[in-house]
Write the structure tokens for this entry.
Amino acid sequence: MNGKSQTNFKTLFEILIISTRLGLTSFGGPIAHLGYFHEEYVRRRKWMDEKSYADLVALCQFLPGPASSQVGIGIGVTRGGVLGGIISFIGFTLPSVVLLIVFAVFLQTAGMLDAGWINGLKIVAVAVVAHAVLGMAQKLTPDVTRKTIALAAVISILLWQTAWTQVGVILLAGVAGYLLYKNQADEDLSSQFNFPLSKRFAAGCLTLFFGLLILLPIAREVTTLNWVAMFDSFYRSGSLVFGGGHVVLPLLEREFVPTGWLSEEEFLAGYGAAQAVPGPLFTFAAYLGTVINGWQGGLLAAAAIFLPAFLLILGTLPFWNSLRKNQSMRAALMGVNAAVVGILFAALYHPIFTSSVTSPVEFAFAALLFVMLAHWKLPPWAVVLTGAIGGLIIL
């Protein structure tokens, strides 16, 4: 092995070790993940400077998909090219994928879906999503106009519960954002942002992203293969999520619960468990896939829901300098982000609250878990453990 190959192998191995350690220890959701990344990659190892990291985070917030996972991919790309991005993604994501597959297998084997601790996990989901909604609302709907866009999204989602309502809401909110905020003053966007990817390669990734988005539903209609239908549902959900992992909940719920792929109890039990594991919330798909079609389905679901995020980050990195200076794009995104808050509020009410909180005792328990998370600042794993134990005792 020559010197360059040894250096490349050492770099890739280093990326794998560090990203896996982060994947095993990064609790607390996407904002916390970004803090862990900053500490490890910027402050300790200096793989990126502060401005480049901030620009990368801005790009990943701009794109649909799991922002923290996309930041991790981008850092891996800067350090080790496309292969470095793949390894960084695997290290950060695989631990929680494995844990949720094991949980789904255990749940089905033990037949414990009606156990009290499972009901406790369902109430944990109420507290976690409520915390996420309020936090995002403060940041993304600071004025009356964006609050109104969020309200319109809530009403639309609750009154017209179809597979395409969310897509329509996001598109209309983008148009509203463009019309209302296109003249807003620009930020300082003078710095440049460079990655070792060609624009030709990036264009190929974007072509594949849109091609799959169009062709998978067609393939689903002309075949009877369950794995094609599963891949389409998870890929489409991963393609349409603006605002992070919590927003994928209503998309996945409407893809799989009304169609009979799994019960609402199974869905919410897994969502509660997903709060207890480190890493990105999108790995919840691995649990769903395992319930539907065993561990092979879990791996397929995880690959399908993360593939859009991977294609988008690789496809936009070389074009980011131009995109970030486009005021029209940034204005549209202001409207989209407000609609995301509305989608979250709708998801908080249905299916999460309506199917989990059915008595005063359950409401009181949900309030306790919310205060533990939002005001006492206890770690998510402690809230999940309290939910499970409390479910055994009082539910």
